[in-house]
């Protein structure tokens, strides 16, 4: 199993400082020959991409999306506009690649970035596909993103229960992706940046093997982001590891001597 280390950074924000700690890991799993997941985890952007299509198509698609988003993060200006421009460039990259041009090629793109441009710091989640962002706040775990999948549409329409959805034969069919023939806009959710928050950004290789309760359990058992990511990966592999697994754990805190707060607006 790959070794996972935790990185930390003190980030000046309006009204004080945020202490960010994060860890990221990706694994091929036990059933797949190649890893078509890709990820980027460095302030201010933390994102996972789960590729699909052909023997190498998915790998090319996810790598293209992450490469373009990496450049946005390095530029220092991460906004919905710069993200969408990067994804449009990734679509062109994928479309021009000779091994990644069939209709089934594409990638999910899911993650969070920190917006410090206003009067208070905010997290913004972005999502295309069925990778997920979870938030653990005040002991409760909430899935912030909504899956773009056939099964989620059936659940939303009341035709499937969440329990039935877990093992549905169309569980892998997504309704939105970054691919050679699609220019798509992510869904965004804006969240206050609060002390004590923990985010999990993951591909469906994790959520196929662990329930939301299981994810929360391993977060509660492991205060360190790297330990939590390792524990979840190990459990997902033990539960079958049927797909590539990618996990980012991101912790938000404040220095002990910082009494400022970022209460709800």
Description:
With 265 residues, the protein is an alpha+beta fold. Helix 1 packs antiparallel against helix 2 and helix 6 packs across helix 7. The chain is 28% helix and 30% strand. The C terminus is likely disordered. It has 7 helices and 12 strands. It starts with 6 loop residues before the first strand and ends in a 12-residue tail after the last strand. The protein is globular and about 55 Å long. A hairpin with a 6-residue loop joins strand 6 and strand 7.
Fold blueprint:
Blueprint: E1 7-13, E2 16-27, E3 37-42, E4 45-52, H1 57-75, H2 80-96, E5 106-107, E6 109-115, E7 122-128, E8 132-137, E9 140-143, H3 150-156, H4 162-165, E10 187-192, E11 198-202, H5 204-207, H6 212-221, H7 225-238, E12 245-253
Antiparallel strand pairs: 1-2, 2-12, 3-4, 4-5, 4-6, 6-7, 7-10, 8-9, 8-11, 11-12
Helix pairs in contact: 1-2, 6-7
For this entry, give a set of tags.
265 residues; alpha+beta; six-stranded antiparallel sheet; 7 helices; 30% strand; globular; disordered C terminus
Describe what is shown at a glance.
This protein has helices at residues 57-75, 80-96, 150-156, 162-165, 204-207, 212-221, 225-238, and strands at 7-13, 16-27, 37-42, 45-52, 106-107, 109-115, 122-128, 132-137, 140-143, 187-192, 198-202, 245-253. It has 265 residues and is an alpha+beta fold. The longest helix has 19 residues, at 57-75.
How many helices? The count is: 7
Total count of strands: 12
**Subunit organisation of the chains:** single chain
Largest sheet: 6 strands, antiparallel
Q: Would you tell me the structural class of the helices and strands?
A: alpha+beta
Low-confidence stretches: 261-265
Alpha-carbon Rg, integer: 18 Å
> Overall pLDDT, averaged?
90
User: What is the succession of H and E elements?
Assistant: EEEEHHEEEEEHHEEHHHE
């Amino acid at each position: 199993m790959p070794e996972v280390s935790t990185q930390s950074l003190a980030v000046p924000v309006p009204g004080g400082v945020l202490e960010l700690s994060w860890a990221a890991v990706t694994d091929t799993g036990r059933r797949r020959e190649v890893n078509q997941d890709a990820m980027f985890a460095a302030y201010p952007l933390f994102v996972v991409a789960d590729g699909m299509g052909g023997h190498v198509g998915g790998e090319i698609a996810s790598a293209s999306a992450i490469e373009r988003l990496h450049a946005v993060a390095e530029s220092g200006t991460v906004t919905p506009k710069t993200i969408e421009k990067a994804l449009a460039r990734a679509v062109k990259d994928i479309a021009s690649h000779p091994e990644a041009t069939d209709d089934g090629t594409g990638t999910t793109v899911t993650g969070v970035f920190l917006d410090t441009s206003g009067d208070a710091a905010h997290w913004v989640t972005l999502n295309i596909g069925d990778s997920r962002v979870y938030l653990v706040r005040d002991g409760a775990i909430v899935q912030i993103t909504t899956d773009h999948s056939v099964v989620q549409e059936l659940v939303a329409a009341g035709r499937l229960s969440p329990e039935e959805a877990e093992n549905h034969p169309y569980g892998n069919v997504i309704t939105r992706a970054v691919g050679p023939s699609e220019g798509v806009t992510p869904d965004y959710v804006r969240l206050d940046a609060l002390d004590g928050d923990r985010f999990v950004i993951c591909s469906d290789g994790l959520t196929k093997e662990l329930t939301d309760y299981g994810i929360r359990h391993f977060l509660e058992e492991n205060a360190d982001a790297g330990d939590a990511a390792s524990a979840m990966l190990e459990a997902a592999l033990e539960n079958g590891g049927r797909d590539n697994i990618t996990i980012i754990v991101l912790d938000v805190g404040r220095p002990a001597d910082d009494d400022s707060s970022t209460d709800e607006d």
